[in-house]
Amino acid sequence: MVRIYIVRPGSTEFDEQGRIKGTLDIPLSQYGSGQVNRTANELVQQGIEVVYAAPCQSAEETAALLAEKLGTRQKTLSKLTNLDHGLWQGKLIEDVKEKQPKVYRQWQEQPETVCPPEGEMLEHARQRVHASLDRLIKKHKNGCIAIVLPEPLASLAQCYLERGNLGDLWQAETECGTWVQLDFHPEAFATDVK
Fold first, then answer.
1. 20: domain CATH number?
2. C-alpha dihedral, 98 to 102 to 106 to 107, nearest 10°
């Protein structure tokens, strides 16, 4: 069994303003650093061996703070680049809702069918997440790791490991500094999924 902690980066000023980050590099805000400290205190006794991070500033800062507090190492995984939200990047979520209500609703209900203007389809990010998770699961067969992922990557990872639904990605976009523990049994997954 592999124990995986999926950690969402602490809040940034963009998060606090309700803006879409996508692939933009935004540092943690003061509030976000506090969220990460609380998360580290919650995870300090969990035996996490390594903290992996997506290659964006908020995820890397979160992972570095966690690794320092947990007394372990941090590693950035370049293949876990966040979804490119194209022209949506930097926009207020509320603006997309008001100016493109059909697309907003479609992203809520069927995000895999939406491509942000000049962005990428969710399926491309899903493939990156799945391939990276498969490698980490093989590498840490009986280990305990943390992976710091921004949205929607965190939701994609959780959906893959739990074989569940994505849920409302607009809502998930606002959930900063949270974490979930998943106990993953690779042998069961290998026999159930072809």
1. 3.40.50.1240
2. -30
Whether 194 has a pLDDT exceeding 80, the answer reads no
Residue type, 82: N
Question: Residue 193 — pLDDT band, cuts 50, 70, 90?
Answer: very low
Domain count, the chain: 1
In 3D space, the residue among 185, 4, 5, 174 whose CA is nearest the CA of residue 92 turns out to be: 174
Exposure string of 62-80, with b = 16+ CB inside 10 Å and e = fewer, is: bbbbbbebbebebebbeeb
Furthest C-alpha separation in the chain:
48
Question: Which token pair is 17?
Answer: 């303003």
Cβ–Cβ under 8 Å, residues 113 and 85: no
**Amino acid, single-letter form, for residue 46:** Q
- The DSSP output letter for 177 is S
Give me the residues paired with residue 53 across strands.
76, 148
Measure the N-to-C terminal CA separation of the chain; round to a whole number of Å.
Answer: 20
Domain that holds residue 138: 2-192
For the chain, give the number of residues.
Answer: 194
